[in-house]
């Protein structure tokens, strides 16, 4: 009854009636709430990931400036649940000049996709909030196919609407997702509207605070993908690390389509075989092949073709094994060290390895690394302090790691999956990270797992203070006042000045038990002294100089009998900033000429921080220290290139860039570049 009355009342009148009714009862707060905030509709979650995307039937919706437009919506007013008038997805347009519509995507500013909007529009540089992206495209749905929307990365919460109806929502940036959209499409012009919101909160992954720019928008390819109704969702083909004439082949249909005949071919290896899907619509088989192995010196790839009765997908796959044994890493059973950094210019560094931190990059990176012969570490943004106890946070992170693994599972270049970076110890963190490791195990157990750990107890760092004090008390150039302080620190600790004391750090994070590679970020020579200067009442300059002196003897080991990878070390330097000036003058302190005349050394050999020289010096000392530690089998200095970071405001030096790059944002090489390149070529040449 009510329904039929509603049907005959025109909508505008109805709204008016509701509005009127609201006014009559406006003292009732709950009515007021429901008036301003509608219940959010249900947003479906994405389907399982479609793999082998580059060989699918795709129509790209990537677009130049003329194709996509955007509207910034800082108050989040365009969502159907927050608007009086149905929100932006209605995409109302002016017809007679009398319609009240307060947005217009056709005349809105244009944007290139993929592309972060904070990079495209200066006004949005620091913006964190919702932005709507609009794309009109022509399409003719095909009865015999399914149509999917595939987005390779969108930060961080994405809601999708097609022709005014809700397609779904995906939370967590950087990784690919797809929705089947057949039922939303019509013949002719279609409208895709994507709301991207790069707001982060304490329960998101990453959390609010990151040392990288929280770029918002669609940051990966956007494709319309057509598949048969019964299609191969994804397939896995990886060499057996224990037997190089065997590979594991796994395949998954989009549904439990049993009895499907699937053929697998590797023409160059004269391999061709047929398999039948089981009752879950899947295949798991070991196949016999005898490939040339992929390695940085021979990045050999083979064309692999998988066909069913109604489709064929293909990819270029390299076959190699990666494993650890004791404290060593083996690629194809040959001992290898990870010499890390970033592609082209980075190849000039004589690298063989890249840590793609701290979040998944585009799939094109791994494809290029496959061809170039570079090993890759891929990572999810479980960074610093995550909301470990929150099941929704865990589900975002699981989704990220699973989708990353499913996307790049056939890339020979990917040898390491990393589940976290610098996460403080706690029981709930252990549970969370174990859940992510299990998630990897479900899909791929052929690669190394790791996490960049935090370690070093307070007690260990107290012993670093003693090592520095001892060095300070012995060093001739140290000013007598500071020397007296060092001596009193040693007295208190009952340490005589002629003792030999070296600092040793043992990585004992219990997560190490479950990882293949013990990764560790350390900042000797950069951050650490800053922690001690107030506490010791010693100037930072003196402590930095002493740190350089003790650094080569620092011991880094782990209680786990596994290889260590130093996943970060580094120092900030502004390209072109050369400071050979007398450091003590800069600090407005008289140069102290000690009895041995070592004051000259004190002045001349110390370079100010942020200079290229300081960074280069730090690299020299670090590399000496690291190569003195036999358990260390890999390094990836932080970082290849200066990058945008909101945490780095220092004017004239940082200007919102993290300056630890070996090259600046324009590709200029700093002095430390050569130091690392020489080290890789001459000291770590194997
Ligand atoms: C770290 C973080 C990295 C930062 C780096 C730095 O430990 O893992 O994200 O950018 O230090 O520059 O401080």
Task: Describe the 3D structure.
The protein is an alpha+beta fold. It has 16 helices and 34 strands. Strands 23-32-31-29-27-26-25-24 form an 8-stranded parallel sheet. A 6-stranded antiparallel sheet has the order 3-2-4-10-7-8, with no helix packed on it. Strands 1-12-5-9 form a 4-stranded antiparallel sheet, with no helix packed on it. Helix 7 runs parallel beside helix 8 (427-443). The chain starts with a helix and ends with a helix. Bound molecules: (2S,3S,4S,5R)-3,4,5-trihydroxy-6-oxo-oxane-2-carboxylic acid. (2S,3S,4S,5R)-3,4,5-trihydroxy-6-oxo-oxane-2-carboxylic acid binds next to loops.
List the helices and strands and how they pair.
Layout: H1 2-8, H2 11-24, H3 29-36, E1 57-60, E2 63-72, E3 109-113, H4 117-120, E4 130-139, E5 145-151, E6 154-155, E7 157-162, E8 165-171, E9 177-180, E10 188-197, E11 217-218, E12 222-228, E13 232-240, E14 243-253, E15 261-266, E16 271-276, E17 282-288, E18 302-308, E19 311-317, E20 322-325, E21 328-331, E22 334-336, E23 338-339, H5 343-347, E24 353-356, H6 363-372, E25 375-379, H7 391-408, E26 414-421, H8 427-443, E27 448-453, H9 458-474, H10 480-492, E28 504-507, E29 517-521, H11 528-536, H12 540-550, E30 555-558, E31 564-568, H13 583-586, H14 599-604, H15 612-627, E32 632-635, E33 643-644, E34 657-658, H16 671-683
């Amino acid at each position: 009854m009510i329904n039929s009355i509603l049907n005959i009342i025109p909508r505008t009148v109805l709204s008016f009636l509701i509005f009127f009714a609201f006014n009559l009862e406006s003292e009732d707060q709950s009515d007021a709430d429901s008036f301003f905030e509608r219940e959010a509709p249900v947003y479906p979650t994405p389907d399982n990931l479609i793999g082998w995307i580059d060989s699918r039937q795709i129509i790209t919706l990537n677009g130049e400036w003329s194709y996509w437009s955007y509207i910034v919506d800082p108050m989040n007013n365009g969502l159907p649940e927050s608007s009086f008038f149905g929100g932006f997805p209605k995409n109302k347009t002016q017809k007679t000049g009398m319609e009240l519509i307060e947005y217009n995507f056709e005349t809105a500013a244009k944007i290139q996709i993929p592309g972060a909007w904070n990079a495209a529009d200066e006004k949005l540089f620091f913006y964190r909030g919702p932005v709507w992206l609009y794309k009109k495209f022509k399409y003719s749905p095909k009865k015999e196919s399914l149509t999917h929307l595939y987005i390779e990365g969108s930060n961080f919460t994405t809601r999708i609407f097609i022709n005014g109806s809700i397609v779904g929502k995906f939370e967590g940036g950087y990784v690919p997702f797809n929705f089947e959209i057949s039922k939303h499409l019509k013949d002719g012009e279609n409208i895709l509207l994507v709301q991207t919101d790069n707001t982060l909160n304490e329960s998101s992954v990453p959390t609010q605070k990151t040392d990288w720019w929280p770029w918002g928008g669609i940051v990966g390819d956007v494709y319309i993908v057509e598949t048969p109704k019964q299609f191969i969702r994804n397939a896995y083909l990886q060499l057996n690390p224990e037997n190089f004439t065997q590979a594991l082949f796994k395949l998954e249909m989009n549904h439990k389509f049993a009895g499907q005949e699937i053929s697998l071919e590797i023409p160059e290896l004269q391999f061709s075989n047929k398999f039948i899907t089981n009752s879950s619509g899947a295949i798991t088989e070991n196949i016999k092949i005898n490939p040339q192995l992929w390695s940085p010196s021979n990045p050999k790839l083979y064309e692999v073709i998988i066909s069913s009765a109604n489709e064929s997908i293909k990819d270029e796959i390299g076959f190699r094994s990666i494993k650890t044994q004791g404290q060593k890493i083996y690629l194809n059973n040959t001992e290898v060290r990870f010499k890390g950094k970033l592609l082209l210019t980075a190849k000039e560094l004589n690298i063989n390895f890249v840590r793609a931190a701290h979040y998944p990059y585009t799939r094109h990176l791994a494809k290029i690394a496959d061809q170039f012969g570079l090993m890759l570490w891929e990572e999810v943004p479980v960074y610093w302090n995550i909301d470990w106890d929150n099941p929704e946070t865990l589900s975002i992170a699981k989704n990220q790691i699973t989708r990353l693994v499913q996307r790049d599972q056939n890339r020979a270049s990917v040898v390491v999956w990393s589940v976290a970076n610098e996460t403080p110890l706690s029981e709930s963190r252990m549970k969370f990270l174990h859940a992510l490791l299990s998630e990897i195990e479900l899909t791929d157990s052929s690669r190394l797992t790791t996490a960049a750990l935090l370690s070093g107890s307070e007690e260990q760092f107290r012993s670093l203070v003693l090592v520095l004090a001892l060095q300070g008390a012995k060093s001739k150039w140290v000013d007598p006042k500071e020397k007296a302080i060092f001596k009193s620190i040693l007295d208190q600790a009952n340490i005589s000045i002629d003792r030999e004391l070296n600092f040793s750090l043992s990585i004992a994070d219990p997560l190490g038990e479950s990882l293949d590679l013990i990764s560790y970020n350390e900042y000797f020579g950069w951050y650490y002294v800053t922690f001690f200067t107030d506490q010791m009442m010693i100037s930072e300059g003196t402590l930095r100089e002493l740190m350089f002196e003790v650094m080569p003897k620092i011991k880094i080991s782990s209680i786990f009998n596994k290889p260590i990878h130093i996943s970060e070390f580094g120092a900030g330097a502004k390209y072109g900033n050369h400071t050979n000036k007398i450091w003590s003058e800069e600090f407005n302190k008289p140069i102290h000429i000690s009895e041995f005349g070592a004051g000259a050394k004190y002045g001349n050999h110390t370079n100010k921080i942020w200079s290229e020289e300081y960074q280069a010096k730090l690299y020299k000392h670090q590399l000496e220290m690291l190569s003195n530690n036999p358990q260390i089998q890999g390094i990836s200095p932080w970082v290849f290139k200066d990058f945008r970071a909101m945490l780095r405001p220092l004017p004239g030096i940082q200007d919102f860039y993290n300056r630890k790059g070996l090259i600046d944002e324009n590709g200029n090489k700093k002095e430390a570049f050569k130091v690392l390149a020489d080290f890789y070529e001459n000291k770590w040449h194997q």
